[in-house]
Structure formats: C-alpha cells, structure tokens
Amino acid sequence: MSSRVGGKSKRSGELLAQKLHAEGIQNVEVLQAIANTPRHIFVPEILAHKAYDNTALPIGQGQTISQPYIVAKMSELLLANGRPANILEIGTGSGYQTSILSQLTDKVFSVERIQALQWQAKRCLRAMDLHNVSMKHGDGWQGWASKGPFAAIIVTAAPNAVPQALLDQLEDGGRLVIPVGEQNQVLKIITRDGDEFIEEKIEAVRFVPLVPGELL
User: Fold this and answer.
1) pTM
2) pLDDT > 90? residue 11
3) Looking at 66, 75, 94, 110, which residue is catalytic?
4) 102 catalytic per annotation
C-alpha cells in the first residue's frame, strides 16, 4: 500500500484542493488536508485514474467513497465554530473522510459495520502514518457512547431519521453534520444547546443509506 502513496499524488491533491476552493470551500485547514491526502490509495486500483476527479466512486460492498466536494463541505461545517477536540465518524467506509478528519482534530473515533472495509481503511491510514484514529466494528446508529461526549459528529451515510443515540453523545455546544432522508436527502447541521437541538438545513445530497442492526 505504501508504494501507492507517492508519485504524482501530492500535485494531484493540490489541484483537487484548488478545484474545491473554486467551488466554494473556504476553510484553509480543510483545503490543506485535501491537498495532503493521496485519494488514490482509498479507491480500487482500477479506478485510481479517477481518484482526483470531483466525483464519488464505488469501493465495493455496495458502498462508495464520497465526492471530494461533499467530504470538504462536511469537514468545513464541523470546523465552523473552531477546531473540535474530538470527532465521532459514523461510517468509516474507504477511510478517506477519516484521513481528512484526522488532520483536523486531536482524536477521531470511527464506527463501521462492514469489517472488510474497516480493515482496508486501517491499511490506508497506516500508509499515511496517521495514528490518532480509533476504529470500532459496530452499528453506527448506536454511536460509540463509551468514548463520548463528542465535540463533533459526522455521519457519512443517510438514516431516515436522526439517531437519538448520536444526539445523546453530542456535548453541549457540539455539532452533528448528517445527511437525512430516503429518496430526498438533505444535509443538516444540528447544534446542541443544553437539552435543545438547533437544526439547520444546508443542501440536497445523495448518500448510501445508514443501515442499522446486523453487522457484516
């Protein structure tokens, strides 16, 4: 895996960051993380030539690596009130979003229900020499209560409703960035204010569903 990290990836990452800036991503830390990250190691080798296109790509198991714009947008939304001390990620997937988050916070806790994807993501993060990520094979609807509360939570698949467990694990003042819906999905930010949750709709999105229950 490490042999796939080098090459032209740094220049490709920088060009991708420039594209995303042109599309409205403003946060300098997020853009730098995009520039520094070799996205091609997170996709199947047969698709590596498309790795720096601003598009989602299949990664197997019926899952996708998210479009770089939406990865950057969700990351930027998490950082809108400053750098969070810790982040809970629901849906490790390829590990690409995880790798971006790990450059933006002290500690990332990432939950994935498909173990084969989790193993692959771990290999990619090791190849990048990122060691501030803890992973759990589990049901994302339940979050990771023993590691909470969290300053920020990001969900990379769409539930049909906001899981109560994730709201419970958000610290006061914390932010949850989550796509919600089935046919028509909307990206939302939910901010905790004591026992109240303030919801803001951002834009229409398209994610794979957040599947509850049985693990793979």
Assistant:
1) 0.93
2) no
3) 66
4) no
